[in-house]
Sequence to fold (1502 residues):
Amino acid sequence: MTWNVTNNELTEEQLLVNESLFSLGNGFLGVRGNVEEGYGPDMTSIRGTYINAYHDETEIEYGEKLYAFPETQQKLVNIIDSQTVTIDIDGERFSMFSGKILGLERVLHMDRGIQERRVHWRSPKGKEVKLTFRRLVSFTRKELFAQEITIDPSTPAEVHVAASVNGNVSNFVDPNDPRVASGHAERLHVTAQEAGEVLHVTNQTYETKLNVHCASCSLLEGAEADKEVIEEEGKLTETYSFQADGPVVLTRWNAYTDTYRHENRLKEKAEEVLAGRPAFSLLEKEQKEYLDHFWMQANLKVGGDESLQQGIHFNLYHLLQSAGRDAVSNIPAKGLSGEGYEGHYFWDTEIYMFPVFLMTQPEIAKQLLKYRHSLLDAARARAKEVGHSQGALFPWRTITGGECSAYFPAGTAQYHISADISYSFIQYYLVTGDEDFLRDYMLEVLTETSRLWMDMGHEKNGMFRLDDVTGPDEYTCIVNNNYYTNVMAKHSLRWAVKAWQKLPEGDRRVWAEKLDLKESEMKQWEKAAKNMYLPYSNELGIQAQDDTFLNKKVWDLENTPKEKFPLLLHYHPLTLYRYQVCKQADTVLGHFLLEDEADEETMRRSYDYYEKVTTHDSSLSYCVFSMMAARLGRGDKAYRYFIETARLDIDNTHKNTKDGLHLANMGGTWLALVFGFAGMRVKEKGLVFRPVLPKEWDTLSFRIQYQGRLLEVTLNRKEAVYQLLEGKTLHFTHRNESVTVTASRPVKLAI
Amino acid sequence: MTWNVTNNELTEEQLLVNESLFSLGNGFLGVRGNVEEGYGPDMTSIRGTYINAYHDETEIEYGEKLYAFPETQQKLVNIIDSQTVTIDIDGERFSMFSGKILGLERVLHMDRGIQERRVHWRSPKGKEVKLTFRRLVSFTRKELFAQEITIDPSTPAEVHVAASVNGNVSNFVDPNDPRVASGHAERLHVTAQEAGEVLHVTNQTYETKLNVHCASCSLLEGAEADKEVIEEEGKLTETYSFQADGPVVLTRWNAYTDTYRHENRLKEKAEEVLAGRPAFSLLEKEQKEYLDHFWMQANLKVGGDESLQQGIHFNLYHLLQSAGRDAVSNIPAKGLSGEGYEGHYFWDTEIYMFPVFLMTQPEIAKQLLKYRHSLLDAARARAKEVGHSQGALFPWRTITGGECSAYFPAGTAQYHISADISYSFIQYYLVTGDEDFLRDYMLEVLTETSRLWMDMGHEKNGMFRLDDVTGPDEYTCIVNNNYYTNVMAKHSLRWAVKAWQKLPEGDRRVWAEKLDLKESEMKQWEKAAKNMYLPYSNELGIQAQDDTFLNKKVWDLENTPKEKFPLLLHYHPLTLYRYQVCKQADTVLGHFLLEDEADEETMRRSYDYYEKVTTHDSSLSYCVFSMMAARLGRGDKAYRYFIETARLDIDNTHKNTKDGLHLANMGGTWLALVFGFAGMRVKEKGLVFRPVLPKEWDTLSFRIQYQGRLLEVTLNRKEAVYQLLEGKTLHFTHRNESVTVTASRPVKLAI
Fold:
């Protein structure tokens, strides 16, 4: 069953993991997979509902605060809870942790966009009842979270149901793990009121003064009930008391609105969403239609491995659930599935997730870029604050543009994020050919980031150098001439020049004035790109991760006890920085993204070298090693790394899925299949494929969008089949061969 | 008047500075130069009394806390206040900020060890009175702070005097400056009781549960008074009401004891100190005797510049007031004159202050080293915690041995402190020839720090490398092969071997077992020292500050606006780290401390190069540049830098003297004169002098202790005169000449 994820365990540990696995979302709203009635006493739950980008600010405390350290940190805020429903049967409260569970099934339906829980329960006093909980966060009505609960006692029973809307919520705090959201456990401002049949609760954040509103209503079918509304401080509860002689169904509609999207119409908009009380079956139908279309465009099929296929579905499904589509939000590192990394947006989006959307849902991809473009003012201000005389320095982690990193060596110092963002804009342009976008968005981003590189870099002995940065590998911080950063900046500078050259003469004058472009700037960019220093070791024949990495002592990974991983939780950063040891792909990632900057033998030797010193303590690592292994013709290795990505969350291999899903890794699964095994690259000259099918699989197929076309690629043991499903004749490259595919006939090529 | 410091200004700014300038101390107890009655309303005062090493602990907050970041920070605590005395004359409260000041003189007597304030005051209603406030912190009775107040109205007056002992104190907080003590503004536990004629107040710190006790009594002479004691929460006040027909004198004795030094006898010991109520004149006499002896041993005389001579006296005097002599305390970066740097001990002691004591007060020097030796267990534990498999890593800043640095790139990363400490032990041995000390203290320190270097360093291409450290220059953090660190570690490793070799065979066996020394270790140390990599630029002919410093962009100091200094308060550390810009001497300091590791031309070129990129934003910088300028025969330059050191605090040139005195810089004054102008070095082969007298001076003379001798050195325009005042015939080097001086006859040599 590759379209479902099922998990029926009732241990505290797995239940926490399930809260993330079974989370629902639509890019705007996210609801964790908590259970309506809660767990047993003393069992931990991270109960959460989130709106993408809806955040508060807290002060950042520093033992020693230096100049331009961020003063405040934004944090995704847990909003009003509308999941909670308690059920009493003949006076006994239903719980999966009392009485006896005679049957239980919890399922996430990834083809249908619903989550379902069926429980056959015998109460402590012996009453039997079948309960079905179904829920969805609508893809088409973004404010709506709906629930359907069926109560079916084996013999007639007196039932009492209480469904609440609770503003008394707070964020979860785990002081022992820096990767988990911290602080902001304070209660929000809460106002509650009852209005006819709709319950209304509004919360406001303390500092950002953002409002969130939840309007909720419900309908009971199958019994005559006494209905009541109980008002408590910040909480409203609807209760139904009735005799159930057969199945009784409660449907709940919970609509969420917030200041960002609905300005002063929070309540009105929420009521509009509830209007007509759309039947749960209708909502299900809409979900199915939406997902049918999505899977038609985005599905990736691997023939011969069901468990893997399930992982692929799961990862793509959660990506879809997590991506903001409104240009004021992006993709939080943990999606909307948990509070880890405080709902911040990182480079994870650009490098690991954006390509999935770009190639399958370009409209969402465009929104993600527009969001980044909207941060430019903040990025310019940040550059100034840090000490630059020009340019834009994008924040390492943020929600609305302010730098939220409290540890700059593995935060602000990761200047590469500015190049990563530029890279995505360039990729978008290459895939869509959208000239308007180039002019209206890309030009400014490339210009301002180029100005940053010019200000922070300098030429010495004919080489343009970028000192004092941290590359992707967070076990090696504050270095000079990180290969990844330099090669990405080079690409960005070169494309900044190109972008201006692509503008029609008239536009160029207008925009040169708008962006205050000096004649001389483009020349400087060109020169800097040309002279960009890319450190190389003659001795090893590899690109050096930075100026001094290869001179350091090599960490003895073989003799490091297993329990000492991830290393960051067991060694002082100084100790980690002192060694050749990588948390994740760094130079190897540079080779993947910009393969034309190094010859194949260098990439091969670099791969071999860095593989030996990489711990993959970051979940952003496996997919890169998988892709580069495939690129270098090492199918076996590619497969082994890939396998680590596909089921990382389903199998909780990193042991922290409870804090939220590893969205970047999920994107990495798609990347590994398409960029890895199918060997796709998007280049200026067009698409390139270099397919490699692991021996474990019979087939691999997927679809991509490219300049108005829909292309299906299918690999089997012998050949690659390219079929144009929509759009005009396409020229591309298969290995080193120029190929043309027309709508009328698929092209089959040996692999 | 070179023996006095006078300042009669009454601006808020200068009064705060005066609190530091006029502070009194004896290495154990420190009392800021506040005024008894306080200032005007709304005027800021940092009112403080401190016991060296008496501290509390507070949690360190981190926005992002990584492994082995210190959890708590120790902070010098402001203890019970016994300075406060208010005086009412005919019902009008005396204040320097009401009525009219007809005369005022505030003087610190550095030859007599007292501070005096004479005020001729006319009250708002026109009453005239002369008041004299005198105070001392006894050098010979370390627990005692005494005050003498003379009240002399021009016509008979009704006077009311209230002298209090107040436990309701807190530390000063300035959230805008990271260099100022922060936090711990909470009140201490306070208990107060009246016991006969002695007032007793005890405070206890919240976390460390250390007690401090103040016992206070007073005597009024010259009038019959009604005496009363008022008890408030945590505060006791003695009042005297009387008619003054002539001068009336109040003497107060305040005795302080604490848990460290007096265990469970705090109250008893304090009462012992008060016993007999020693007359203020007796205490003055004792001070004078003590200081006569000190100045006889330690005074430095410069002929031809009174203002400079005053600065020299001032700096030496405060060094004497600040140095702990009990092996549980050391010299706080601000002495006992303020709360800046939270009373922590840094490398400042070893490199800037220890040599002064070593050469003039070797018994105090020994105590300072014993204190460091006592931290070994903590340093071993810290090494383990950070990730080392062996050795001792001394804390960058501490009171009792725990690392208190909350910003590791300019804290824990300064591994050189472990070499600095070793260096001092070696210097001590060279100056005293104390073999017992070598065996009982030095051996262990050198062994454990050598083990640290072996664990953190590694050999590559035949060179022993020390990666991932920060040198003295805090504008360049987290680098590889910092010259200073490497050359200091080399010296330390080499001496570790020597120290073992100097042990008699029997001792060696015993100690090898005690310290678990393996045969192979000494060989490794020797090899590492021999192969230590000392980065050098062939292009520039200088030692490179680290592997990559010279490749960075050079900061444009010339075009940096004056108000942007110190740079650390105006630029993000990443921006500073990215440039060739130094906060302070780094490589140049390495050349000063270990001149035999580089040839003279290299030192000269290094000096010229680094001088251009150094801001001297740290007060630890001038003296080093002065000494090296003198070493290189540049008397003018040496003089100009020296001048910045001598009056830095008196003239408040760094604008933060209010937070406490710059003790290291004060040591630097002595160093610049003795190591700089007199060109003294302590080497294994003996003392070396290379005198250079600036043209501004007629003479320079000083005395030093060396292997049981007292040697006086006098420079005049033509010659250096070496006179042996105590001890056996001495062989030393004057320039390149071997010289012998005997007790019977001074040696005069041309300079």
